[in-house]
Amino acid sequence: MRYLPKSPADREAMLRAIGARSIDDLFSPIPAEYRLKRDLKVPRQMAESEIVDWFRERSRENADGYTSFLGAGAYYHYRPVIIDSLISRGEFLTAYTPYQAEVSQGTLQSIFEFQTMICELTGMEVANASMYDGSTAAAEAVMMAVRLTGRRSVIVARSVHPEYREVLATYAFHQGMPLSNVDFTDQGRVDLDALEKSITPETACVLIQSPNFFGTIEDVAAVADIAHKHGAMLVVSIAEAISLGIVEPPRQADVIAMEAQSFGVPLGYGGPYCGVIATKEQYVRQMPGRLVGQTTDKNGKRGFVLTLATREQHIRREKATSNICTNQALIALMANIFMTVYGKVGLRELAKQNLSKTAYAAAQLEKRATILFSGAPRFNEFVVQSSEDAREINDRLLEDKIIGGLPLKKFFPELGNASLWCCTEMTSRAVIDKAIATFATNDREAVQEVEEVAR
Amino acid sequence: MAYPADFKYTKEHEWIKADGKTATVGITSHAQESLGDIVFVELPKVGTEVTKGKTFGSVESVKAVSDLYSPASGTVTEINADLATAPESINKDAHSAWMMKISLKDSGDLESLLSSADYEKFVAEES
Amino acid sequence: MKHPTPKATRHTNQNEGLIFEKSSPGKAAWKLPPLDVPEVDVAGTLGASERRDLGNLPEVSEIEIIRHFTRLSTWNYAIDLGMYPLGSCTMKYNPRVNEVVARLDGLANAHPYQPEKLSQGALRILKTLADCLNDITGMDAITLQPAAGAHGELTGLLMVRAYHESKGAPRKKILIPDSAHGTNPATAAMVGYAVENLKSNANGMVDVAALSAQMNEDVAALMLTNPNTLGVFEQEIHKIADVMHAKGGLLYMDGANMNALVGKVRPGDFGVDVMHLNLHKTFSTPHGGGGPGSGPVAIKKILEPFLPTPVLISADDGTLGFDYNRPDSVGRVRAFYGNFGMFVRALAYIMANGPDGLRQTTEDAVLNANYIRKGLDGAYDLPYKTPTMHEVVFSDKLQAKEGVRTMDIAKRLIDYGFHPYTTAFPLIVPGALMIEPTESESREELDLFIEAMRSIAAEVEEDPAMVLGAPYTTRVSRLDETTAARKPVLRWKPAPASPQNT
Lengths: 455, 127, 502
What we know:
CATH architecture of the largest domain in chain A: 3-Layer(aba) Sandwich
Number of helices of chain C: 15
CATH superfamily of the largest domain in chain A: Type I PLP-dependent aspartate aminotransferase-like (Major domain)
Largest sheet of chain A: 7 strands, mixed
Number of domains of chain C: 2
Structural class of chain A: alpha/beta
Shape of chain A: globular
Radius of gyration of chain A: 26 Å
CATH architecture of the largest domain in chain C: 3-Layer(aba) Sandwich
Number of strands of chain C: 12
Structural class of chain C: alpha/beta
Shape of chain C: globular
Distance between the termini of chain A: 60 Å
Largest interface: A-C, 196 and 198 residues
Distance between the termini of chain C: 49 Å
Largest sheet of chain C: 7 strands, mixed
Number of helices of chain A: 15
Oligomer: heterotrimer
Order of helices and strands of chain A: HHHEHHHEHEHEHEHEEEEEHHEEHEEEHH
């Protein structure tokens, strides 16, 4: 087998050196009744070309050549090519966790840069070296607030991504953390009155998302006031990282739990992505996940190490801040390179393009359907409501190889025939115009009318 | 004598010095030596009730964490704020780098603890 | 008089700074295409939510970015460069075809919410991998959702808890051997269980008598690693499983050491009820400097109702889809479906091997570990004489006499061109040297490793002080971890502005 660097002669010689007659000797500790006597039921050994062909077939079966208006926690942005050029280097791709700092300075320094840039973007003082994804980062951030306040209950905005809320419920269930929801107003934002009424002295934190699941930017300051007034912490989840280029970050938050997928990470059918937790310096010892710190070697040279390891599982074991071991280092490196490529000026320009495309699409669609939550600012997503079932509209769009916005009936049945639409810098005007034309009606004349107006 | 005669000691390597109804608590020089460079000390808030034999905090080196066990029961009246910025003072002089002061619930708690001679013997036997 | 050769201090590659230190206003690595829609009035749209200041994000050009990260990469050790003898990490070759297939457009750019009928390719990948892993483990069903091993442990224990609750009582405790990986007790605590330590016997294995004594109706499960962290197969596994099952408990297996078992024996056959796999260990997906991983959890039928939502199903016509109607599910452990990119890679690895390749891989892994055990015989203390599977644990007992410990030997190993082995774990061996070569090492590499380790053992006898000062050949010498923990500096900060800087 071509990945195995041994000749039959090597194996013979090694067995002799060990004093074993055959390889079976080395497996004798396995009781005979359990030894597998047949081949595994896996595909037969394939040539490299066959493997590529097989996956290429799968790729073709997978919406090849479609454009999409899907967002909802996973965003299609352009990935600068140098990301893959650099992360494909064997020294990054095949390196281990940087526990031995002297031979891992490449990984450590790049994580340190990542931590720095996340702090700059989020307005927080410290950031970790990544969590699994935005959903688990939000759950871990909430548990952090519970540990810090010593209180047990949590209020979660319904405008937080429904799957994030499901994950939190799973984590919270066995930690004795009662969860309660707070609803959104017709502006699509957290209902502040309802929040004020439901917060108690037992509330550890309030969890919101901004821009929220609907794309609407929350009134973070107002939510923070209410939470802090009652001694609770504010945890803010951010699913669309590009928003940080043009939307003021939630500086009033105590903990931010981010998803960095938008920063150069492929959609990849849902993973791997890159969560991050960022917070104030005073909370760092309760923050889970790896942390890289700057230090010096015995000659005074600057270097980087994993630090504050005593929070982690391999030392604290059952008293650890979390059980997390792996981080998303390679994905964080993609995000790191992305943030470096766009930088201070580029990130804002990129965000502005997203904002412009979405504003245009929403304005055009408004002529054919209802755009919900218009009373508050939004970033690159919006909710459309029409008299027609969203799935039927989407079926029509599929004929033009367009995947429409996410139908929301499953998550928010009270919104009726609503769907969530996202436009990024990758969404061309032509596709937007075509989608809008097809959206409203299957009457061809009305379609042409819309196309003319749009021109 | 390596260990101050007017202290009492636990088998978990804490020391306690009673002064009437109050007492001062720290860890021994043997403890700091086994821990190595101390980087962080987690202490209870003033007003916390501590119980003899139960944990009251922890001390961390780079690669390890050790729980701290209270030599006596009582209420925390003061904690050593210097340890937050200079935990290394424990490495320098563990017997002066006190951690907390407590008002004793029962000064009889100290009777079962080791004297400095007994503690010295205990340490020698352990290693 | 001897003039020592000055070590170069101005070499560009060796002195690459932080990217922020190269930043300068006006430099750019990006260019966006012109906007084909009207530019939005930002202030009008966002109002008070508009961000005015992007702070200290860098402004650099493309070549500076390429040089920066390329230089950084040269400071890393990697599998592509040489062996990582790290115990229980299974640092095997990361095949490049995996990287190619993961980047195929229809897979790399698939949105998780795209219609199922347009995702049959992705779903077929999930199904094929799931079927392979079920047969490899000898289990009945599997979830691919968990993002990593520890996450898989969490998912597995959540299902254990749900199972016991369905029987009337969740029970209170999880038994964990003292040789276990730290994630095991950390996970048990997260699921609301108390951890009870199970002492290993004199051979470092599970003490079945102790287990019988500790097992009762309050214990939900035993979390076992098999082979254990000493690299030894628990030969009494049948008795262990029986003890657990007799009192209604479950046997959880940490699958970190599957590299000793694939194709030779299946955990499902020896009594395991639930286990996680580490795709980034056994199944060749790249470590990438610390992640991503993927931790699928395989189960027996009895736990099927509790699988995380959604569950992959096949319709009668063979169309694949997700079933969200799972009333007894433990819920979700993450958004979307799992680290799909890692599924692609793991499946490509399985296909490149086939059943014969997988079996040969396991045999070579075990052969290599035994070869090292023989080669280091006498140079290092071997605390447990039980038969070795895919990893072997020595101790620093002989070297400790000279004041040299496992970490020091590990640092000296760097000077010989190897990454250190796992130091100070498992905890049941004081001063442990835990070595797992994997099947990816040739005899030549193994001989070099053995020679290096024997040479260090000799150095310890002749010049322990020299070993204590290692490494000498790296860009940085031993780093001050104490100050890094006492006074953490976790981000770069710009120098305060002064009149001259403006």
